[in-house]
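Quick review question:
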């Protein structure tokens, strides 16, 4: 039989259309760099970046109804699942850009390249969260990480920021070694880099020991990126030292992209149909990591006087909640985790946005204590009210999105027989109410006169920019909508329930 000549560029147009957000964000990032070269820190740079993110966000929203597929020879996914996670990345980046413009001006670090870095990092997150190949996962992970390292140390005059960036870089490089070695072992065990083909390759090679060694090393890399215990040690220092609005971006979009990639690995790469007894071996590991992550994150958050550091340990605990859904190993657990990632992004961007507007210490809030914010609710009611939405939602109170999010990850775990893990999750959520509601207590139950005199002397009058206020109100409204009308949870379930994800998986 004669082989037909294959034109490798025949489907290039469709690939570029399907993966529009991936190349669009990278291209606009390059444009911003060129503009910054000729017009250093020009005021148009954040506007161009924000409009580019908004355009990509609209495209992804319109792609919800598009049948799932792959692009660039099966390296990345498009439509459906990919569109949903891309909305999280792009929405988080857009809101962070809006919040960062006045904030970076206030701390006198309004550099044009910051917005280019946000776009480059978002491009890496899109590649990571929609990857269909281990190479795509690695390239996306490193593209995102390098940008985050730089943004962490943006305030070079602050020793704490430089220390945080160095810790993040060194520990990130160390975890990358585990990740890359795991990829090599998986390729050796299966003969392929494509996630949907790994199970078939494993059945042919029978290299089970090599395969699970690769899975273990790959999991270490993922656990580091989502700040799960015991790979969480970088999180408090990085969150405390980085500029606050950028901390909100890192804590949401980067975590969502890593979890999205992990879901794809669990759904496609680990064997279940042909080898059910082997396909369940990873579930106890995820359950144990979720157990210690929820407990340690919440317990350590109790003693934090700095709000950014408290939110850092809180983010560790929330990674544990997502892992509870993944430990169930069911499509309901995966879809619940996706929904939780969206709700978590909205909650955290709002919370860090409020804290960015309340900074007075001149050190990106790294030494600012909670007690110094006494009476904020009376002085700035908008900040106090919206912070109430974010804190109650993070705790898991109805009728906000945080309650539905926790239900979405806990219910599948109960169905999978992990009732003990859900009990731990509920108890630690109740424990978290102490430190979340303590923020509201200081905001509303203490008067401005109770602030230390030394603090009042350093504080300057501050205004809430209109766009920043709009972002906070939008986040609060979205949490309320997701809480009372969680129809989006059915959308995430459809990504796995209909079988379209599997049909579009093979490159």
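Suggested answer, residue by residue:
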């Amino acid at each position: 039989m004669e082989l037909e000549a294959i034109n490798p560029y025949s489907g290039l147009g469709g690939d570029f259309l399907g993966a529009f957000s991936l190349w669009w964000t990278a291209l606009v990032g390059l444009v911003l760099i060129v503009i910054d070269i000729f017009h250093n820190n020009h005021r148009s740079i954040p506007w161009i970046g924000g409009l580019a993110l908004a355009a990509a966000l609209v495209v992804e929203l319109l792609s919800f109804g598009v049948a799932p597929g792959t692009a660039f020879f099966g390296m990345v996914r498009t439509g459906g699942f990919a569109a949903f996670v891309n909305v999280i990345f792009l929405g988080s980046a857009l809101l962070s850009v809006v919040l960062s413009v006045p904030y970076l001006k206030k701390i006198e670090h309004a550099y044009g390249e910051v917005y280019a870095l946000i776009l480059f990092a978002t491009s890496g997150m899109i590649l990571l969260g929609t990857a269909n190949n281990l190479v795509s996962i690695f390239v996306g992970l490193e593209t995102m990480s390098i940008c985050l390292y730089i943004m962490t140390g943006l305030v070079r005059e602050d020793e704490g920021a430089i220390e945080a960036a160095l810790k993040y870089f060194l520990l990130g490089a160390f975890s990358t070694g585990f990740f890359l070695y795991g990829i090599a072992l998986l390729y050796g065990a299966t003969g392929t880099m494509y996630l949907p083909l790994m199970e078939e390759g494993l059945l042919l090679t029978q290299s089970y020991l090599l395969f699970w060694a690769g899975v273990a090393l790959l999991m270490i890399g993922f656990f580091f990126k989502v700040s799960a215990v015991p790979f969480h040690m970088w999180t408090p220092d990085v969150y405390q030292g980085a500029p606050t609005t950028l901390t909100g971006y890192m804590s949401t979009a980067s975590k969502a992209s890593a979890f999205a990639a992990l879901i794809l690995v669990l759904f496609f790469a680990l064997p279940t149909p042909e080898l059910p007894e082997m396909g369940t071996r990873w579930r106890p590991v995820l359950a144990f990591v979720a157990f210690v992550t929820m407990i340690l994150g919440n317990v350590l958050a109790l003693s934090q006087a700095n709000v950014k550091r408290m939110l850092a340990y809180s983010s560790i605990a929330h990674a544990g909640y997502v892992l509870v859904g993944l430990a169930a190993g069911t499509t309901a657990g995966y879809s619940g985790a996706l929904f939780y990632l969206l709700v978590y992004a909205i909650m955290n961007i709002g919370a860090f946005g409020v804290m960015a507007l309340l900074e007075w210490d001149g050190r990106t809030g790294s030494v600012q204590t909670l007690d110094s914010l006494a009476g904020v609710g009376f002085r700035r009611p908008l900040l106090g009210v919206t912070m109430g939405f974010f804190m109650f939602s993070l705790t898991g109170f109805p009728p906000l999105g945080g309650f539905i999010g926790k239900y979405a990850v806990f219910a599948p775990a109960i169905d999978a027989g992990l009732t003990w893990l859900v009990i731990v999750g509920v108890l630690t959520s109740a424990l978290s109410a102490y430190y979340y509601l303590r923020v509201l207590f200081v905001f509303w139950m203490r008067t401005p006169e109770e602030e230390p005199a030394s603090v009042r002397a350093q504080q300057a009058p501050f205004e809430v920019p209109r766009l920043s206020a709009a972002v906070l109100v939008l986040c609060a409204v979205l949490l309320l909508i997701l809480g009372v009308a969680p129809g989006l949870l059915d959308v995430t379930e459809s990504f796995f329930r209909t079988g379209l994800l599997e049909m579009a998986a093979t490159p």
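Why it works: The chain has a mean pLDDT of 85. Residues 300 and 458 are 29 Å apart (CA to CA).
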